[in-house]
Amino acid sequence: MLKLHNLIVNTICLISINFLSLAIDITRNISPMYNLFLSCVKGLESVCAKELKHLGISDTNETVGGVLFEGDLNDIYRVNLWSRTGMRLLVKLEQFSISTQQDLYDNVHKYNWIDILTPQMTFAVDSFVTNSELNHSHYASLRVKDAIVDSIRERKGRRPSVDVSNPDVKINLYLKDNIATIYLDSSGIPLHKRGYRRKMHKASLNESLSAGIIFLSDWNSSEQQFYDPMCGSGTFCIEAALLATNTAPGLFRKSFGFQHWIGFDEKLWNDLVEKANTSKLNECIDIYGSDVSLASIAMAKHNSSVAGVDNQVNWKVRNFSRFDPKTNNGLIITNPPYGERIGEETDLVELYKLIGDTFKQKCSGFNASVFTGNLELAKNIGLKTTARIPLKNGNIDCRLLKYEMYVGSKKHRSE
């Protein structure tokens, strides 16, 4: 009986130890969840949410200028690496209401900043203020900066330095209707700055907006040829090639904000980068970019070479008046000048008329998307749109105008 009793006791102890070890292993592998905000160009919120769903993040909440969701450290790294339409991925640290500037200081000061910053690190603060008692963004940034510095100095005896140009840690304050939200910027440099565009046209669209326009245009890369007949420095064509070859846009970046954080998981990051490199596809894609400017095509060729897609895009110096695709199934996306930054509006009326005539006479069977910030000029295209999607290009209110050129009549097409 004594031997049986000892055997039972030893077995129970062994099971308890195994369960304890398993619990410890599980705990070690559980990453804490964070409240995240992926900002984007206004008008691309739904596209941004679809991208997150593609990355396995389905519980999202679209809001003006971005998407809210929960994610762990793995999600933070992956979204920065893979998001084509996002601009910044922000990690929510704290939210509180204020009625005076002292409230802002006090609430920021009591946060445990030693988990975020050491005295040896540098940081910067950006503030965005709307409809609040504290209505000066620069002063709000100073109060947040003072609170962080004082908090760390009181606990560590030394203070971190401010570096507005290249900080280790970037803090964002959003102050709206006296509700302050403090974010940690995981991206650092905005995500639209991929790193491949070493040379660009002075009116180039940013890469995230360009990718979003491609998504909104519903390009089927396996069935449709892709054309930009006024390609400038080639951003549309390059983003299309990166999309079709499943190339993560973050692979060209030198660094992200999270790589400077305390506790940066280098192994996790390296594993994600390696997986992204091995998931690239060597697809044969029909992508064509042309422009009247030899200098623009030279820039486009250089940028596509840096992006590793120079073999995927056919570049050509050609006036739009000579645009004549040799197929009846393709997508045209273009961003003609619209009187901002380049040229005068009166000089562009004939160009927009030519766009409409070319689409109608030479592009049967095509879908087309024209991105413009001048709806008066766009009227000269003279074709009926299938969609008019509001978007922002910087501070300019723009529209993505979608057209469908039927082969024969619309009735025949539907039949």
Structural overview:
With 415 residues, the chain is α/β, with parallel strands linked by helices. The protein folds into 2 domains: 34-185, VC0802-like; 207-245 and 281-414, Rossmann fold (3-Layer(aba) Sandwich), CATH 3.40.50.150. Helices cover 35% and strands 23% of the residues. It has 12 helices and 15 strands. An 8-stranded mixed β-sheet has the order 2-3-1-4-8-7-5-6. It has a 7-stranded mixed β-sheet with strand order 11-10-9-12-13-15-14, covered by helices on one side. Helix 10 links the parallel strand 12 and strand 13 (367-372). Helix 3 runs parallel beside helix 8 and helix 4 (101-109) packs parallel to helix 5 (137-156). The protein is elongated, with a radius of gyration of 26 Å. Mean pLDDT is 89; it is low at 1-5, 11-29 and 409-415.
List the helices and strands and how they pair.
Layout: H1 2-29, E1 34-40, H2 45-54, E2 60-63, E3 66-71, H3 73-82, E4 86-97, H4 101-109, E5 122-130, H5 137-156, E6 161-162, E7 169-176, E8 179-185, H6 207-216, E9 225-228, H7 235-244, H8 266-278, E10 287-291, H9 294-306, E11 313-317, E12 330-334, H10 349-362, E13 367-372, H11 375-378, E14 387-393, E15 396-404, H12 410-414
Parallel strand pairs: 5-6, 5-7, 9-10, 9-12, 10-11, 12-13
Antiparallel strand pairs: 1-3, 1-4, 2-3, 4-8, 7-8, 13-15, 14-15
Helix pairs in contact: 3-8, 4-5, 6-7
